[in-house]
Design goal:
The structure is a single chain. By secondary structure, the protein is α+β, with helices and mostly antiparallel strands. The chain has a single domain, classed as PPM-type phosphatase domain (Phosphatase 2c, domain 1, 4-Layer Sandwich). Helices cover about 25% and strands about 25% of the residues. The protein has five helices and ten strands, in the order αβββααββββββααβ. Helix 1 (about 1-10) packs parallel to helix 2 (about 60-80), helix 2 (about 60-80) crosses helix 3 (about 85-95) and helix 4 crosses helix 5.
Length: about 240
């Protein structure tokens, strides 16, 4: 039931905006045996602003799936009002805290891309650091920033925004903790260093291949060991303004 709720709420059509040549997106969620509340989302706020979200709800099973559904809807509704990244998280936090009788929370990384310029404004509510492929450098690296508090925990929480710029050929990779915390039979975790190595296997590839490379590296590492966290990833490739021929 929880798996069905999750799958019905996540966008699955790729490419999601075939008429838009300035960017490409691919995302996936591989549910663990014990279902959690991971989710991803992406949508156009207007013709020049794309919002991307990745999040992980605390807990497992049906309650987590339901909390995930509510969180996803509130985040998108707040974003469509034209608010900034930090304001979207703050308003979502207030809404979730107002009647959170189950004591659940969600970690969220939300970014708004100004499509015409490549400027990205992001805010982080206790989530994993994003990774960016800089075409000029030829490799991925983490963008480390100060996290805000999780969403749904304290109703007065505020979220600091930070900015970075994507040039044509750059990529943004978002993921949940199920990736670096994937564990093998010996209790060892996959880790962030191995994640960057997997991303750099074919860093100039399209978003779908980037995600396949990470999934293959994780599968090779865990060697079939049972996992308890979903494996959720999203990759945005920025192409910039396309010149008409």
């Amino acid at each position: 039931m929880a798996t069905g709720i999750q799958n019905s709420m996540l966008p699955h059509v790729f490419p999601p905006f075939p008429e838009r040549k300035e960017f490409d997106i691919f995302a996936s969620m591989d549910a663990a045996k014990e279902v959690g509340g991971d989710f991803y989302d992406y949508f156009l706020i207007d013709e020049d602003h794309l919002c991307v979200v990745i999040a992980a709800v605390s807990g497992k099973g049906v309650p987590a799936a339901l909390f995930m559904m509510i969180s996803k809807v509130i985040l998108q509704n707040c974003a469509m009002l034209g608010r900034s990244a930090g304001e979207i998280l703050a308003k979502t936090n207030e809404a979730l805290c107002s009647n959170n009788q189950v004591g659940m929370f969600v970690t969220v990384l939300l970014g708004i891309l100004e499509i015409s310029t490549g400027n990205m404004t992001a805010a982080n509510a206790g989530h994993e650091h994003p990774a960016v492929y800089w075409a000029e450098k030829g490799h991925f690296e983490l963008i480390r920033n100060k996290h805000g508090f999780v969403v749904g925990g304290i109703d007065t929480a505020r979220y600091r925004e930070y900015e970075f710029h994507l040039s044509p050929g750059d990529k943004l990779f978002l993921y949940t903790d199920g990736v670096p915390e994937a564990t093998n039979a010996e209790g060892q975790m996959f880790g962030l260093e191995a994640l960057i190595d997997a991303l750099d296997t074919e860093p100039s590839s399209g978003p779908d291949q980037i995600l396949k490379n990470v999934k293959n590296a994780v599968d090779h590492f865990v060697k079939g060991a049972e996992q308890f966290d979903d494996l959720t990833m999203l990759c945005l490739s920025y192409h910039g303004k396309q010149v008409e021929q």
